[in-house]
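Changelog note: in this version the structure field was regenerated for every chain. One regenerated record is shown below for reference.
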Amino acid sequence: MVDEDLNSLAEAHSVSTRYTDWRGHETAVSRDTLVAVLAALGVDASTPSAVRDELARLNARERAVPEPRGVPESLPPSPRSWGFTAQLYSVRSRGSWGMGDLRDLADLASWAGALGAGFVLVNPLHATEPAPPVGPSPYSPMSRRFASPLYLRVEDVPEYGALPDLERERVARLVAALRDGGEIIDRDAVWEAKRKALELTYRLPRTAARERDYERFREREGAPLTAFATWCALAEEQGTDWRRWPAELRDADGPAVAMAAKRLAERVGFHTWSQWQLDEQLGRAQEAARAAGMPIGIVHDLAVGVSQGSADAWMYRSLFAPGMSVGAPPDEFNQRGQDWGQPPWHPERLAEAGYAPFREMLAAALRHGGGLRLDHAMQVSRLWWVPEGRSPAEGTYVSYDRNALLSCLVAEAARTGAVIIGEDLGTVEPGLRADLAERGILGTTLLWFERDGDGRPQRPERWRELSLATVGTHDMPPITGILHGDHLALRNRLGLLTRPLEVEEDEHRRQLADQLELLHAEGLLGIPPAEIMKALDEGSTAYDEQVVAALHGFLARTPARLLGISLADAVGERRTQNQPGTTDEYPNWRVPLAGAEGHPVSLDELGGHRRVEAAIEPLRDWR
């Protein structure tokens, strides 16, 4: 039983004592969870007397809430446009080193722009581990402030042209095996080769003009860049989880770290230089997008957080809540809930810091892009905190100053003229969608989730205007995988279902039949839905392409400002990039782009690709 004093103390610190689950049931948060979350906020609620003392202290002091100043209230409407969504690492070309890179992004944008696309939305390009093993998830990075040199195209570094022939041969040997591709993307092998090639290039002399550019970059990025590069150098030596370092190195501002930075000056310099190269290549990708006629260009993706042992968690240690992890409560597609293994910002300490790390992160993300997607848009309002050692279902919501965070977001976007998209799917706090819309921030409308009051697919005219409309997400199989129930077979094989497979399959068939009926009623699908369902039941792929095109035509009939077409859907891919609730059981975030038959599809093959042409035909005159 949770007592009233504990509830009052929790609510005073913006910790939810009750919440509404995905089925609409109100659920009480356990006493143990409240005590643990309050402890992470620096509040002792371990005993009734401690709770009373904390309440007395709370009543005795005034809590200052910073007021954002001098920022625009909202963003202008986004231009109506369609574009491709892609997991960049999966989009390989003849020139890339085993995974898609920033040259591939520039070429992808040029190709898409020629087709009439207004943007390309990619996965987060955040910094990864500087030494193996390199984590595969773009959504569990080492830093959200800096980017990953995995995405550099080595040959595009200006100094590379001066590399002596002998060393060029060495680089050619490094890349040869990677260009043969593989069924699974091996980031460790990619980084091992790129790191060696980049180190050779880093040692080459720079012109005076280039040296001045480098100096301006270092001045602009300031102390955070130095801190990040220092973490990278230490991580190479001590391991990529700072929590396992010697105690004296865990304090980013301590004298031991300053001494180590001097000792490791060459490595600190290399990681600083790598970020400069990323800044330049990111800029060229956006330039290519705009040169191709895109009104928006590259839309970057901002992960919810960083790994527990990451650079950001080390650099801003005092601004994170200890012993907590961000996740999500159980929902329809993840019925056990999710624990993302990421420390949450401490709401009060972040506010006391004037939200500086948050603002700097936004500025970096928007510097070379026309837009920004916020993965789990609730990060600007509340997050689901999971106490260490507990299941995701045993967490609770902790609220942040939504007005302050949205003001930071709008200010940075207005400064660069960027579009902001919030991924507001799943369990969304009341009022958040309205606040996002009022600020000119687009939401996300997902076809598979969009239903009316009777649980049937929502008619296109009833969809939100201020949104990015898509068919699916990176956490679900592409369209053809959904049609054939691949997601259910996979989740059943991995033991992730909470209901019998037969029940899930029956519900899936009903929902899919309803969607096909609506497509038919809209005149987008000429084949009788019963015929398609019969073919799917028999394992036939005969109608897959027609259904994909019909679903994209359906998106085009909605009033949504932006339409996102998954590149995986367009080429006929069936495999999902990520299966929530798994780590090594499925090759999450390591699946290279392939077609319907499972054969790899390279960036070089997209031009004139028959399935792609058919998939985007309904959108050609849409804008």
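Spot check on this record: The chain has a mean pLDDT of 94. Residues 208-238 form the longest helix (31 residues).
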